[in-house]
DNA sequence: CCAATACTAGAACGAGCGCTCTAGTATTTC
DNA sequence: GAAATACTAGAGCGCTCGTTCTAGTATTGG
């Protein structure tokens, strides 16, 4: 059984996915989560900004766990990259192209206007980069190259979400994933 | 001398870059463009949605011209890709990380809620893809492969903007650009 | 069992939203 | 030069925004 706080964060995460930060109102969050305004302000006294930061940090950690699960399940790092992009594409299709990463959306919207949120997104991306980088390095890629490759892979996933959502097609993520596999394979030689 | 309509579109484009669609109010657009509300509704009778679509279509065309200029200025297609990403990175830094592509931001925000805007973003991305694809094919890459590569390149640019903006660093775009050059070079062999 | 704390509940606030409307001034067209 | 059209100007509409506030109910600790 989920706590009220978890309900609020979960509902907000879902709303951020399809409408972003500015497009989501506290009224909607209250309705979708079943928690009244008072509860939202009880758990997040600084209001929407604080709730937004929690959504970014916590959903960022959840994505990272998923990423690590996928990676450690694959037989090699090249297969892992493919599974990552194909998994994202499948989730997107299943949700009628709603289920994109909310962090990239919020980063674009508010990086210039809400410094605390910008920092939260930056930290999450940094951690993803680290998780990917470590696994690429473990597969035999030089540390610096691994870090650069991880940066490109995160960029490609986030950009892939944009094209998939705009076109209502999963091809961009799948195609981009295959190109990322190619880059990793080349770095392994 | 710019027309009032051009002033409105230009001001809105600039505001979308830093705050997105939902984060930008008509009041701000009026103030920044110098045009009163009446003028905005004179040129865009269907209001904010119609203005938003115009911003996407017109700034999309402007970016495409820039892309073609850069591409046709370069000695080869690999150099062109590098110039594209480095140019984007430089513009970003010069503008204190505000000057990202507004189209990717709007696509993520409103693709599920404003069908007309989603279509506008899809068309723009399609045209960019075409412009890139033609040039990759002209350099000797098989047509289908060229199209796929173009998709990945557009994804990578848009995703690169996210990481750069979140981290307030230009490295992600530059690193990603070098990786794209690598992919193109590999496809040319 | 009672006091303190945690949490729920939602009405109400001022501010700002997108949009409409009326009235005005330029500019064109015949 | 008169009539029609194009555009400017901004006050004001109903509504929703994020936030605050008061009052209530559970839950906990001594």
Element layout with pairings:
The structure is a homodimer of 189-residue chains.
Chain A: H1 4-19, H2 26-33, H3 37-43, H4 48-73, H5 77-94, H6 102-110, H7 115-138, H8 143-167, H9 171-188
Helix pairs in contact in A: 1-2, 1-4, 1-6, 4-5, 4-7, 5-8, 5-9, 6-7, 7-8, 8-9
Chain A binds a DNA duplex (30 and 30 nucleotides) through helix 2 and helix 3.
Describe the protein in words.
- The structure is a homodimer of 189-residue chains.
- With 189 residues, the first copy, chain A, is mostly helical.
- Chain A has one domain (56-188): Orthogonal Bundle (Tetracycline Repressor, domain 2), CATH 1.10.357.
- In chain A, 80% of the residues lie in helices and 0% in strands.
- Chain A is built from nine helices and no strands.
- The first copy, chain A, has helices at residues 4-19, 26-33, 37-43, 48-73, 77-94, 102-110, 115-138, 143-167, 171-188.
- The longest helix of chain A has 26 residues, at 48-73.
- The radius of gyration of chain A is 17 Å and the shape is elongated.
- The mean pLDDT of chain A is 97.
- Chain A binds a DNA duplex (30 and 30 nucleotides) through α2 and α3.
């Amino acid at each position: 059984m989920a706590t009220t706080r978890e309900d609020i964060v979960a509902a907000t995460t879902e709303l951020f996915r399809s409408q972003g930060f500015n497009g989501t109102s506290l009224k909607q969050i209250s309705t979708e989560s079943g928690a009244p305004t008072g509860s939202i302000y009880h758990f997040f006294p600084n209001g929407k900004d604080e709730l937004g930061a929690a959504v970014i940090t916590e959903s960022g950690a959840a994505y990272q766990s998923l990423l690590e699960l996928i990676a450690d399940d694959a037989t090699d790092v090249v297969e892992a990259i493919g599974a990552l992009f194909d998994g994202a594409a499948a989730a997107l299709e299943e949700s009628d192209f709603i289920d994109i990463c909310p962090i990239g959306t919020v980063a674009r919207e508010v990086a210039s206007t809400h410094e605390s949120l910008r920092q939260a997104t930056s930290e999450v991306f940094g951690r993803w980069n680290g998780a990917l980088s470590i696994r690429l390095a473990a597969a035999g890629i030089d540390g610096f190259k691994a870090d650069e490759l991880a940066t490109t892979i995160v960029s490609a996933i986030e950009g892939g979400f944009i094209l998939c959502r705009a076109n209502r097609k999963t091809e961009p993520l799948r195609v981009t994933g295959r190109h990322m596999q190619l880059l990793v394979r080349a770095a392994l030689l």
